[in-house]
Amino acid sequence: MSKVESHSLGAKLKGSGPRWALPRLRPALWQGLASFVVAAILWEFLARVVVDNPLFFTSLTDIAIRGVELWKSGELQTHIWVSFIEFAGGYFLAAIFGILGGICMAASKTARGFFDPWVSMLYATPILALGPLFILWMGIGVASKIAVIFLVSVFPILINTLVGLTTTDRILLDVARSLGATPQQIYMKVRMPAALPYIIAGLRLSVARALVGVVVAELFGARAGLGFLILMSAQSFDTAAMFVGVIALAVAGVGSVAALKWVEEKMAPWRFENVDD
Amino acid sequence: MTEAETSSPPKLSIRGLSKSFRKGEQTIEALRDLSVDIRKGEFVGIVGASGCGKTTMLRLIDGLTEPTSGTVLVDGKPLERPGEQLAFVFQQDGLLPWRTVMANTMFGPELQGQNKAQSISTAQRFLRLVGLTQFPRHFPHELSGGMRQRVNLARALTVGADILLMDEPFAALDAQTREIMQAELLRIWTDTRKTVLLVTHQIEEAVFLSDRVLVFTTRPGRLKDEVVIDLPRPRDLSIKRTTAFTRYTDYIWRAIEEEVRRSIDAELEQA
Ligand SMILES: Nc1ncnc2c1ncn2[C@@H]1O[C@H](COP(=O)(O)OP(=O)(O)OP(=O)(O)O)[C@@H](O)[C@H]1O
Ligand SMILES: [Mg+2]
Fold first, then answer.
1. What pLDDT is stored for residue A25 in this prediction?
2. Among the four A219, B40, B60, B254, which has the fewest Cβ within 10 Å?
């Protein structure tokens, strides 16, 4: 089974000061903000002075204005809501089946032998390319999107759960056995907690895939959603509206990944200790 | 030594214990036909060249590894399962990183089904015994190596086993901390009257702590020599400067030197 996904667990992040103390902004955050401001100015300059053609490149202010318009008409909320439902449905199912599947495969050698080839194969398959097929089968409504999102995001979760449960530090297992733990106790009190950071890392990896899934699945045929908004705006040369969709997705992606990283760091602080500020 | 043994059955009796590991085609014989009896309350040090089967022996005694042949008897009876009669202090501290010092120390009682209040009071008692009361809410990664090793020891003691198996428990510590921990261990042993088997690479440590030191041959591990340490108790660190003490360490060093040389030669031959 591939361990590649779990390597990104070592992802470096680290907060200084007490973990629960809220925004006394850290240097890294200031730097991040500063780079955003610089980028925004550059963007504005590029749009207004260099390109100066709203079809090819739109200024941030125009995008903001268009965003407000879309919001006021209620259109933007509809797209966000539809995309959210698709994302939440597919991702939720992926989380449940990924974790349960990982647990089953970790528990039984037979299950592992039986499913491993499928998991490896489907994980490597560009499932997004099958999007049109799902739309053919399940229509252009929400169901086909949920199916695609489920399939693109279930495997990182499953694989990480499996790896997390099967690579428990041997010394911890020995300690538990030596203290007289039963196999069930070893599972619940050692293997499971040891696997938890892996599972959360899998959930984090899947968020990005699921969001890409939302957009691409909608591009293949939909009635609403942020991907649909992007497609429609592009086809009607409404570049500002297209950027509104892209930015909404970017915010959703950055936000959910950051939230999961935060949970990860909260639940497994020892993994993030040796990283310098 | 022999006169004390005859009166009551030995606390721990190892009979013809052997272990071979199979690795593909190869079979590695780690331990061969080891027999030794250990009295109740005895402190036994075990020394031998690296890779001679010391850890394997402790694991076999604790039931973590199945022997190829031979038996281990505790109070004349075979061991049912790990946990009740034996406690193991591993070389790596093996603390659960997601549990605080207190929760790690409570782990044994919790596994045995004690309720929370009982577990906490048991854990507190043994944390006090190892002198670590200030940091119950710290996580292992927030502790020094010496503190972690104290928690490791406290956790092993909570099980209430009569026999303590210790595998190089102080090897990872600096010289000063190690000396302090040795003195602490002697104090705890005096207080609790446990039977202790302590594996160490430090001959000095073995002599300082033990009633008897077992010297192993190189792999496959067999008993090469046993040395009764007839030094007065209670001992403190000043005893290490007496001539009687250095006579013991010199003697054991000579016994082991030949074995160590042989193991190094064997390794060079393989390379
Ligand atoms: N699980 C295992 N599988 C295969 N070989 C093993 C296993 N455990 C130990 N061995 C081998 O058995 C021999 C004895 O190992 P053991 O760990 O008992 O040595 P040791 O005396 O504790 O050494 P050290 O002083 O370096 O800790 C070694 O050659 C080791 O390679
Ligand atoms: Mg060893």
1. 62
2. B254
